[in-house]
Structure formats: C-alpha cells, structure tokens
Amino acid sequence: MSFFSKLGKDMILPPDVLIQSKETNSVDGAINATIGMATENGKVMKIKEIESIIKNLNFFEYLPYSPTTGTDNIRKLWKEKIIKENKNINPDYLSTPIATTGITQAIDTVANLFSQKGDALLLPDLFWANYLQIFTIKLKNNIYKYNQFEDNKYDLKNIEFILNNIKEDKITILLNFPNNPTGYTPSTEEFEKLTNIIKQFTNKNKNKKIIIICDDAYFGLFFEENHNNSTLNSMHTLVDCENCLIAKLDGITKEFYSWGLRLGFVTFYTKNSNLKIEIENKVQGFLRSSTSSNSTLAQKITEKILTNDKAIDEKNNNDKIILERYKLLKEIINKEKLNTLVKILPFNSGYFFTIKLPNKINAEDFRKKLLYEYHFGVYAMDESHIRIAFSCLDNENIINIIKSIKKCLLNY
Ligand SMILES: Cc1ncc(COP(=O)(O)O)c(C=O)c1O
C-alpha cells in the first residue's frame, strides 16, 4: 500500500516552462523569452509607485486577516473596474468579485465547484498547460480540443463541430483571450459568431449545463482595433441562456505587473440572483477550506494602486511599451520574411506569439539549438510549437531574436 492517495499518485510535476526557464537562466548571457512575465533590461517591468504605496502602509492596515471573500473595498473597486471596462454588461447581473490567490486559484475554484469526473472541458489545441493539472489530473474531466486556426484564420467551424459532438451533460468551455500561447484575441465579428454557436448549442441542448470560463489573465493588452475585445463584453448575451453560467477570472498578476502579489478574482455573470448568492457561499466555503483567506497586504496594495493616478499612468505606460514591442515584432517578422520558413500563428494581443516549426524540426531540439548557439531561450510546448514571450524582450532583442530564429532555421 502506498503513502499516496489516488490524487497523490496521479499528481505530477510537468516538465514545463518553469524547467525550461531555469535552464535558460543557467546559460551565460542568454535572453529569457520563456516565461509569462514582462521584463525590461532583464529585470521585472514594474509600477514604481507600488514601492511608495508599500512604504506608506501601516501595520494595522495589512496585518489583520481579511474576510474570506476579500476586503469590501477591493471587491467594490474591482467590480467598478469590470463594469467600466465592459460597457455592454448589465451591472445587476454581475456578482461582486471574490478575491483568490492568483488567477490559478480562481480557475481551480470554478473547476472544482462546477465540474467533476466524467464532465467535459472544451479547449483549443494549444493552451496554458496548467489547465490539465486542474481539470484532468485533479478532476478527471474529459478533454475535447478544437483547432484554433485553419489556414491561419480563427477556426469557428471546428469549434462548432467539436462542441456539437460532446456527449457529456456538463461542459466547461474555457476561453482565454488574449490567448496564452498564441497571443490571439478574436475580432468583433468572430466573437459574434462564437457567441451564436454557443447560444444555438445551449438552446438545442436544454438538458446540458454549460460553464463559460473567461480566463482574462492578459486582459487589456489588445493591440489591434478590431480585436480590442473583452470576452465577457463580447459574449454577454449568453446570460439569456438559462443553462449557461459565465465566470470571469482575472487579477493583478499581468494587468498590474504584480506577478508575485498573487491576487486574482472570480466574478459571475448571471440573471439568477438566487444562484448568485448560492455561488458566493459555495466559493467562500471552498476558499475557507483551501487558503482560508487572501493576503491582506496584496489587497491593500491593490486598493491603493486602483485609486492612484500615478500608478495607473505607469501601468498604461508599461502597456504601451509592450504595444511598441508588438509593432516592432510584426515589422521585423515581415522584413525578415520569417513566414516563408515557418508558420507564425495569428497574434494581435497579450505577451506571446507562437511558431509552428516545419515537420522535420523537433521543437525541443530547436529550443536547445537556439539557446546554446544563439543565446535565446524560448518555450518548446510540444513536438512542433515554440512560444516566444515578447513581453520579455527589449526592442534590440526583438530584432535579434527574429534574426537568430531565422539563422537557426537556415542552419538546420
Ligand atoms: C492563461 C493563464 N491563465 C492563468 C494564469 C495564472 O495566473 P496567476 O499567476 O495569477 O495565477 C496564467 C499565468 O501564466 C496564464 O497564462
């Protein structure tokens, strides 16, 4: 008999991005474009004002426990922020956000409260690997994957086809825009079509319950006009489907350049006010039995960030730096004609872009060659895709990485 429980036996530490990032850091002079952070000159990109916010906090503000759901003030401020940034929604249907330990805990909470063994999870073919830890290793959901792109266009037909072939009665649809790893956010028209696909499906299958998770980790980093779309805002009419529940998961991690503060939020959008109350109690109970309550320090800092013009200006400036990197990246990709050598998946937002390598090149081999011969670390996601975090690349390195990838490919 083993010491481990069934879950303990199943649990793994995946050989994922953190290991590849560690390897990159061990190579002298290598530039790290593996991880989901934003950096400048190799150091974390920051909102400097946070330092004076922290210095001016007093013990009595941050030492006490906060309520399990989060401080009243942060919950109110975050709700106001969501309402301001999602003009189409009806504030009456929006629950008050509940604070979680990072967005990861928000996902884990929703996954645990609404899905279990034998339920279905619908994902694109490329996705944030941690979803699998939560939904399959812990919860034994059945995974259905659709192609995100066909001929480098958002593949709505495939989403519709796969969704309509799901037999399970409980389905979680996980939408993550701006997307990790591709950096794609659908256009306004694509969002409209996607909403209709889900609406038709839910209306046709009244016996099924559909949970829509909007993983908004990279919210706000939208770089193209027609793709400047919040998922909740674009899909808000799904609230009319009684068998559909929408959850918006977001946080300060990437939005406020505060990866280590570990503050996320879970917010629901539903017309059913009794359900809203019931869900709030259940989420509270779930958090009570895991982290009990969130860091009061992180919440107090965030309250001050959200009400401090200087901090907001700095956040907007950082967003602009990433936008400029995006523009330069597009320019240099075109100039070097990189798409004649590899398939660059469509991207218009967020931290990343993804390359599909030619069949004869293995992604892990390519990653190693690029790292040890050209001193750039990227993330090999599977056999054929590499993800590059341009959020970690200063302008000169954006130019250099594209040239290095090209050379590396030509020298294969
Ligand atoms: C798509 C996506 N969702 C969620 C998270 C988790 O965010 P957090 O660090 O707030 O837990 C990440 C982090 O990289 C992510 O890329």
Can you characterise this structure?
This protein is an alpha/beta fold. 43% of the residues lie in helices and 17% in strands. It folds into two domains: 6-46 and 310-410, Aspartate Aminotransferase, domain 1 (Alpha-Beta Complex); 65-307, Type I PLP-dependent aspartate aminotransferase-like (Major domain) (Aspartate Aminotransferase, domain 2, 3-Layer(aba) Sandwich). The chain is built from 16 helices and 17 strands. Strand 7 (149-150) and strand 8 (153-154) form a beta hairpin. Helix 6 (102-114) packs parallel to helix 7 (130-138) and helix 14 (309-335) runs parallel beside helix 16. The termini are far apart. The model has no long low-confidence stretch (mean pLDDT 97). The structure holds pyridoxal-5'-phosphate (PLP).
Brief characterization of the structure:
With 412 residues, this protein is α/β, with parallel strands linked by helices. Helix content is 43%, strand content 17%.
Mean pLDDT: 97
Q: What does the oligomeric state look like here?
A: single chain
| CATH secondary-structure class of the largest domain | Alpha Beta
If helices are DSSP runs of H or I spanning 4 or more residues, what is the number of helices?
Answer: 16
Strand arrangement within the widest β-sheet reads 4-12-11-10-9-5-6
Bound molecules: pyridoxal-5'-phosphate
How much of the residues is beta strand, in percent? 15-25%
Percent in helix: 40-55%
Instruction: Please count the beta strands (DSSP E, at least 2 residues each).
Output: 17
Major sheet description = 7 strands, mixed
**Low-confidence residue ranges:** none
